[in-house]
Design a protein that fits this description.
With 569 residues, the chain is of the alpha+beta class. The protein folds into four domains: 15-116, Roll (Ubiquitin-like (UB roll)), CATH 3.10.20.90; 119-177, Phosphatidylinositol 3-kinase Catalytic Subunit, Chain A, domain 1 (Ubiquitin-like (UB roll)); 230-447, Roll (PH-domain like), CATH 2.30.29.30; 464-564, Pleckstrin-homology domain (PH domain)/Phosphotyrosine-binding domain (PTB) (PH-domain like, Roll). Helices cover 25% and strands 26% of the residues. It is built from 14 helices and 24 strands. The strands form four sheets. Strands 14-13-12-11-17-16-15 form a seven-stranded antiparallel β-sheet. A seven-stranded antiparallel β-sheet has the order 21-20-19-18-24-23-22, with helices on one face. The longest helix is centred in the middle third of the chain and has 19 residues, at 212-230.
Length: 569
């Protein structure tokens, strides 16, 4: 038992001096002078400034009694209900009031802190929003959001924030540890919203690979998600003026009804019957050059053309069934064209229809797409409205809408950065309209579900990557742990040098002292490695988590061991 001694080294009464640093909660006021065996406070004693108390104690004093001694030292009633003892050297909380100081190993050299458990913390969501709240630093992250990652490592759901070195008012990034295991239940709005933020953040930060076509799909779906948020209310504004493509795209509004995907075909009605004067350009088959006024009639899947306009039978009739319909739009020059590639016995015949303005373009573009029967059949009325709003034109020709509650985002900024410079101007508008038609009108919740499903279908989804050094290797490599396989990747070329399914993984272990990981694989292959980019515990959790989530039901204790892993020192 530690105790006070005389100058000659003789023990006096088994007592010893214990120094305890006391931090007050906000609003508790100044600290009074300690009484009854309590030393003077050191330094300032205002709010937020800790005071050091020197207590004369014995080893048989229990933790609850020590906290009572600390409270009594302040001489006046205070609310200490949120305070607890933190042992700095051992990095642990002394929660249980029953053990004695001797049984815990607390002696004269121990550094104890009597401190509030609830402290401010900032949670950053994947899309960039930050929420500041007060959390229990003595409780486990499992109660406060165990899906947080800090300093490139996952927090342990079985240990408190303080034990893991999280500081007051620090910023944590909120993420799902095993997103591949998250079901897409339309009723679970909060979880879907968080998953969507994580997916959008990962795509825009290029943390997961996607093709240009997939990127365009995500951009279109994101507009349908955000359309309902910024398309309502406000004061009147001037009608849109002719402007270049970049500005027009900034005014993009994708409010396609919000009533969900279209119902059965009979509810959509037949393709619209259209008859108007257009301009037509067919360089390969027609004897004239340039464009000519043309009377056009669209009925069902048949397009009839007269040039020049006038009475008599049609000079040309095209069957638009399964034809390719592509927008040819230049907003800067106010040119609105529709390219038709029609199958004929002699091959593909190309025709370009030129419309006089955006409303005429929207009618004929929608009519031709519906007549072609390619890519589904969204409601002609809703799709026409969507095309007009993409072009910055009011669908009904009436008064302009109110000012949005917030400015609409630039659609190109919803593409991964490497695609933003590739898809420019006219090309972007055309592809956007094509993908919009293929997707059809969706309500924001439906678009979110479609977005998440497309995200989960990407090849790199759910992969945890670790920079490692394999035993005997001359350079660092990457070990990718996914929902169904392990990949060994050369970071210099990005190529996969070896892959294993989980059926090949017989066993693994972690030596917490040396921080080495060993993997036993089929074919008597044993791999030793050291994780360089994270604690080995994180790799242990990913391996166990994917095995547990992808296999048969397990005993709760075994499941917890696999998901949380062992405790590294």
């Amino acid at each position: 038992m530690a105790g006070l001694k005389t100058a000659s080294g003789e023990e006096i009464d088994g007592s010893f001096e214990l120094r305890v640093e006391v931090e007050e909660s906000e609003g508790q006021g100044d600290v009074g002078q300690g009484q009854g065996g309590v030393g003077q406070g050191q330094g300032g004693v205002g709010q937020g400034q800790p005071r050091v108390l020197t207590l004369c104690v014995t080893g048989d004093l229990h933790v609850g009694g020590l906290m009572r001694r600390i409270a009594d030292a302040f001489g006046q009633p205070r609310d200490w209900s949120d305070h607890a003892l933190w042992w700095e050297q051992q990095r642990r909380w002394l929660h249980n009031p029953s053990p004695t100081l001797d049984s815990l190993g607390v002696g004269g050299g121990s550094r104890l802190l009597f401190t509030p458990r609830h402290r401010p913390l900032r949670l950053r969501f994947p899309a960039g929003g930050v929420l500041r709240l007060r959390l229990n630093f003595a409780g486990t992250p499992g109660r406060a959001g165990g899906e947080s990652v800090w300093a490139a490592r996952w927090l342990d759901v079985g240990r408190s924030l303080m034990e893991q070195g999280v500081a007051e008012d620090q910023e944590l990034l909120l993420r799902f540890k095993y997103p591949c295991a998250m079901g897409l239940d339309p009723q679970d709005g909060l979880r879907l919203a968080l998953l969507h933020e994580e997916a959008l953040g990962a795509l825009l930060a290029e943390e997961i690979e996607c093709t240009q076509e997939q990127g365009m799909l995500f951009a279109v779906l994101q507009y349908q998600i955000e359309g309902a948020e910024w398309g309502d209310g406000g004061a009147p504004q001037d009608p849109p003026q002719p402007q270049d493509l970049d500005t027009a795209l900034d005014k993009l509004e994708l409010s396609l009804g919000g009533s969900g995907t279209p119902g059965p075909v009979e509810e959509l009605g037949a393709p619209p019957e259209l008859e108007e004067e257009l301009e037509i350009y067919r360089p390969s088959l027609w004897p004239f050059r340039g464009s000519r006024p043309t009377r056009a009639r669209l009925s069902g899947s048949s397009l009839s053309l007269w040039t020049p306009p006038g009475p008599g039978g049609p000079q040309q009739e095209l069957n638009l069934n399964e034809c390719e319909v592509t927008p040819e739009v230049d907003l800067g020059a106010q040119k609105f064209g529709i390219k038709l590639r029609v199958r004929t016995p002699g091959g593909m015949s190309e025709t370009l229809l030129r419309c006089r303005d955006a409303p005429q373009f929207s009618r004929w573009f929608c009519g031709c797409r519906v007549a072609s029967g390619v890519g589904g059949s969204p409601s002609p009325t809703e799709f026409t409205r969507g095309v007009l709003e993409v072009l910055g034109v009011q669908p009904d020709g009436g008064d302009p809408p109110g000012t949005p509650s917030r400015p609409p985002p630039d659609p190109r900024l919803l593409l991964p950065p490497r695609f933003q410079s590739k898809l420019k101007g006219k090309q972007f508008t055309q592809r956007f309209l094509e993908v919009l038609y293929q997707v059809g009108p969706l309500s924001p919740p439906q678009a979110r579900l479609r977005f998440l499903q497309a995200w989960k279908d990407l090849p790199g989804f759910g992969m945890g990557t670790f920079l490692v050094r394999f035993r005997g290797a001359g350079h660092d490599e990457v070990l990718a742990v996914g929902p169904s396989q392990l990949l060994r990747i050369d970071p210099r070329s990005g190529s996969v040098t070896r892959s294993w399914s989980y059926s090949d993984l017989r066993q693994w272990d972690v030596n917490w002292d040396s921080q080495q990981v060993r993997l036993w694989l089929s074919g008597d292959v044993t791999l030793g490695l050291r994780v360089l980019s994270a604690p080995p515990r994180v790799l242990h959790q990913f391996l166990g988590g994917y095995l547990a989530l992808g296999g048969p039901p397990r005993d709760p204790q075994e499941l917890q061991r696999l998901l949380e892993g062992g405790y590294d020192p």
